[in-house]
Input
Amino acid sequence: MIRVQSLVKKFGDFTAVQDISFEVQQGEIFAFLGPNGAGKTTTIKMLTTLLKPTSGTVTLDGLDPQREQHEARRRFGIVFQDPSLEWELTAAENMEIHGVLYHVPRKLRHERTEQLLKLFELWERRNEPVKRFSGGMKRRLEIARGFLHTPKILFLDEPTLGLDPQSRNQLWNHVRHVNETEEVTVFLTTHYMDEADRVAHRIAIIDHGKIVAQGTPAELKEQTGTDSLEGAFLALTGSSIRDEAAGSADQMRQFVKMWRK
Amino acid sequence: MGALYILWLRELKRYLRSHTQIVASLGQPLLYLLALGFGLGPVFQRSGNGSYLQFIAPGVIGMMVLFTSIFSGIGLLWDRQFGFLKETLVAPVPRLTVVLGKTLGGVTVALIQGTLVVIVTLIAGFRPGSVAAIPFAFAFMALIALVFAGLGTAIGSRLQDMQGFQLIMNFLVMPIFFLSGALFPLDHLPKVLGAITTADPLSYGIDGLRGTLIGRSHFGLTIDLAVLVVIAVATLTVGSYLFSKIEA
Ligand SMILES: Nc1ncnc2c1ncn2[C@@H]1O[C@H](COP(=O)(O)OP(=O)(O)O)[C@@H](O)[C@H]1O
Ligand SMILES: [Mg+2]
Output
């Protein structure tokens, strides 16, 4: 479903993604793990038509996201790492815009909106402008919106960042649900090793723009002789904390939390 | 079609909900109209040019349409900063539809703002030559809005941050306004200024408004119309092209 070969992305003379290759099968849940600034978001942007690769090839359901942008965009849905809501409009209006942009028929749009906003506990507040929402509520809305249409491939870039445990649980249940019932292929990144361990079928660990290991969670643990994915992660990426040039304070905090666990 | 409509509607809703901004935005044209209209009125009259209020009202209407439309395009910068731009960039909708929805939304808002200023000028004492002129004046307002919404989109597609915005404001938007003949007649200007005003697209918009509203035109309505249509096609094409090339 996704095939990446020798993919490279340079920003000036800084190489964010260095020659990575991997494949994701249809119906698979694939997790991309890596420290801050490893190149996860940059990779997702190249997969989702937002960035042009410096070199290498990407195929998405047989399509080239650069040359067949429009066709490629019909294949996937994405929850971005950074905010992407319209702040001046209400939660319901944000859902409506998304539903229309993704050609979800009106009736289904309204049913799903109600179901998802209830699931993520935003239904009572649906007619309030997003700018009045707390950080967690905004994040929940981004996620609810991501599930409004059913794409072939769903990209989730650190979807649980800033979510409380309840919502996190709802999210992963829902991811598993659409994966099992609708065969949606899922490509996700996260900082929480336990989550990846629980939901992902296969994992690639990326560090400094390079993939350092790939396999099922069990394989990775075996390969590194550790008993948790977190142990495997540390063994593979070392234990120095990474600075991210454009990193947000939020990310840094998440990262620190992770190390303290 | 649905996508075009929903993106147009988004612009309109954002506008209609910003009550304070709407009121605030009327302050500037009001100031020009009253301070300049009445302040310079006597001098203007004595120089044999007639009523300055009559003269400046179309200029002030054009000013509002210019500002509103160009900022709607440059507003892409805000969409980028708040992140909503990404949502539209990956949607399975042609980029042309996305940019048209936004642009037409901006044009609609500019026309509403222009209408508010028309009302303000009428209250201040402005009297158009005939009621029949009003629809033609709206056509010119729409053309001004299209020209500058296109230009704004072109700029907004390339701008990355707020510093760029200040630069555009001081070195592009303000000069376009001041060098357009919105505030002074284009006849008998010094050579250089005359050349600059002739190169300013807004000159033709204001001239068209003045021609339809008070029957006083420098270039002639046909030329105004032709120039505006050609420039609108150009800025909208460039704007759409640059928008289609945005990376995030
Ligand atoms: N537009 C850009 N210009 C320059 N450097 C960038 C840009 N986007 C990302 N980077 C850099 O590329 C590296 C990878 O970033 P990113 O893909 O966001 O990492 P991750 O998502 O794994 O935390 C970081 O060092 C980041 O600062
Ligand atoms: Mg990232």
Q: What stands out?
A: The interface with chain A takes residues 2-3, 5-7, 10, 13-14, 17-18, 82-94, 247-248 of chain B (CB under 8 Å). DSSP finds twelve helices and no strands in chain B.
